Amino acid sequence: MQNLNLTTVDDAIAYLKETQKNLNPSKAKLGKRNIVWISVDNERDFNLLVKAKKHMRNIKWVGIVQEQKQNLSEQKDLARIFEGVQ
Question: pTM, whole model, 2 decimals?
């Protein structure tokens, strides 16, 4: 989960192009299934990345998901569950 602090669609396009270049430098067609997921924690970055993805080609293999922050009590409950499993 990350906060990219994107301000415009152009910033989001630049971020996706850089990600695309790093993960698929040969520009091979990877299909329409999501292989890589970008997880952001705020709605603004999520919306800008979705808009940017619509303006790009050969980027369908990158999925974008907006994570919701869990409150402290939910985190403690999950920690108790995991402790019981181990």
Answer: 0.73
